[in-house]
């Protein structure tokens, strides 16, 4: 079965700093989804990547999928307190998404 | 506004009781899902439905039941057979999902269930 591993598990950064979250799959990815979650709330869709080498950006968040389609990274430029939360990657497993365990991001002034 | 509505937000259950979590969507999606989220374990699929009157077990279906009588509704019942039901439950919906389809899965705001 497919497994997703996220790193780091937790990240604390100062406001204005850049950061990267990684998501590694045990199998080739047919689609990789990034979501953001505030604790105790629902998941907010950020981006979805399908093609090897693909890169997408939204505001200050950029996601990439490597050429081999087994690893994705999420990069935040000039972090702000509004970026704080849990970031989850999800893999297209046909009828469902399989999720990583999440990365908890804290941003302090 | 279009979206997914889950209720209640907080629910307390006594041991031995069955409880039902509601999920309604007005996105006209055929597929609906229930996930369970525990600290440090990500999300795990309980049940999913691709069409009305049909549903399939996910990875952790034991102790749960669902129904899909209407396209917009997919309630989840947590039965007394579920040994550790305290968790955060998330309902989701999408256009029918197939591998590589690239369809986005949208999530509701979640429901907290606590056994007392």
Describe this structure in words.
- The complex is a heterodimer of chains A (109) and B (116).
- Chain A has 109 residues and is an all-beta fold.
- Chain A has strands spanning 4-7, 10-14, 19-25, 32-37, 43-49, 55-58, 61-65, 71-76, 85-92, 97-99, 103-108.
- Chain A contains no helices and eleven strands.
- In chain A, the strands form two sheets. In chain A, strands 2, 4, 5, 9, 10 and 11 form a six-stranded mixed β-sheet that branches. A five-stranded antiparallel β-sheet of chain A has the order 1-3-8-7-6, with no helix packed on it.
- Chain A is globular, with a radius of gyration of 13 Å.
- The relative contact order of chain A is 0.34.
- In chain B, strands 2, 4, 5, 6, 9, 10 and 11 form a seven-stranded mixed β-sheet that branches. In chain B, strands 1-3-8-7 form a four-stranded antiparallel β-sheet, with no helix packed on it.
- Chain B starts with a strand and ends with a strand.
- The model of chain B has no long low-confidence stretch (mean pLDDT 92).
- Chain A binds chain B through residues 4, 30-31, 33, 35, 40-45, 48, 50, 88, 90, 92-97, 99-102, and chain B through 4, 6, 31, 33, 40-45, 48, 50, 56, 58, 88, 90, 92, 97-102, 104-110, 112.
């Amino acid at each position: 079965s497919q497994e997703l591993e996220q790193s780091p598990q937790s990240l604390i950064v100062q406001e204005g700093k850049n950061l990267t979250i990684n998501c590694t799959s045990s199998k080739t990815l047919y689609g990789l989804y990034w979501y953001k979650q505030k604790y105790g709330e629902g998941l907010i869709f950020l981006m979805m990547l399908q093609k090897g080498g693909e890169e997408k950006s939204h505001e200050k968040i950029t996601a990439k999928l490597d050429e081999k389609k087994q690893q994705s990274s999420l990069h935040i430029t000039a972090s702000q307190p509004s970026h704080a939360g849990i970031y989850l990657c999800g893999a297209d497993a046909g009828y469902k998404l399989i999720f990583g365990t999440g990365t908890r991001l804290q941003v302090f002034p | 506004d279009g979206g997914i509505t889950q209720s209640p937000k907080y629910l307390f259950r006594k041991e031995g009781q069955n409880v039902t979590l509601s999920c309604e969507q007005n996105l006209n999606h055929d597929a609906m899902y229930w996930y369970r989220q525990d600290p440090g374990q990500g999300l795990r699929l309980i049940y999913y439905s691709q069409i009305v009157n049909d549903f399939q077990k996910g990875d952790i279906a034991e102790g749960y039941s669902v129904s899909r009588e209407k396209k917009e509704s997919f309630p989840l019942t947590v039965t007394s057979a579920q040994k550790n039901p305290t968790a955060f439950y998330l309902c989701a919906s999408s256009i029918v999902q197939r591998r590589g389809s690239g369809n986005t899965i949208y999530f509701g705001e979640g429901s907290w269930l606590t056994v007392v």
